[in-house]
Amino acid sequence: MLHFFNTWRIFSPWDKSEVVNIFSSMRAVFKLEGKIISKSSQSEIFSQEIEGKTYFVKRYFRSKGVASWFGQSRFRIETKNQQWFNQIGIPAARVVAYGEHTFLLKTLKGVLITEGVSDTRELSELSQNSAEKFYEKHWREAIIFQLAAITSKLHQARFCHNDLHWRNILVQQSRASDEPKIFLIDCPSGKKLFWPLLHYRKLKDLANLDKLAPNYLSRTQRLRFFLLYRNSSKLTNADKKIVREVLQHKQNRLKRKSKTKRL
Q1: CATH number of the domain located at residue range(s) 4-115 in this protein
Q2: Residue ranges in the chain whose pLDDT is less than 50
Q3: Domain 120-262: what homologous superfamily?
Q4: Entry pTM
Q5: Phi/psi at 72 (5° precision)
Q6: What counts of helices (H) and strands (E) characterise the chain?
Q7: 169-172 and 181-184 strand pairing
């Protein structure tokens, strides 16, 4: 006998709101229509307005790879990571509901719904269209401090994001006088690791964060981020080694991309 299973869960306080009627089941969510914000070979994202609030719906219509047969689909990993962020206090969109249709341990379809965070822009979009923000000391220092604290907390828990680019960092600021607040999004490949993979993936996270940084931050400001990340007042020999490794990681990545383009 083939074993197919369906799960669907709406969390509190949304289980006592109009959300229940709109997102009544995974089948109902797959019937919803909306303007697709992002789409990949496995999933698509659109937003849904309910009682004046925005919710982001990510629908996984397939899972790929050998790992997905062992309960490690991108959907399951992303859902687990998003919930874990919420639990340990990492600023991230709150999980409203999720569900999946499975065969044995493999995800056939899945839905992850998160609460929209108001007044946000991607850090990458800000860098392109509002680069002047990086000249505002108060704003810049708040971004550096929060990014360092979040990255340090993840790495101290042996967790690496694996895609910690500026496009996956939201910056919230309701008014010009407000301090900006950072939120993490889109983490379907993050995981807890052990040495030696842990060290390499930490370098990757730091290199990804530093990819665009030289265009908008001075060396002193980038160093400030690193010292905050390391909770240190000055560079030690171990710190200097990590900095060299991060820069080498960036250089190697650029060489690989250049080689791929030539091919």
Answers
A1: 3.30.200
A2: 1-2, 263
A3: Transferase(Phosphotransferase) domain 1 (1.10.510.10)
A4: 0.86
A5: -120, 45
A6: 9, 11
A7: antiparallel
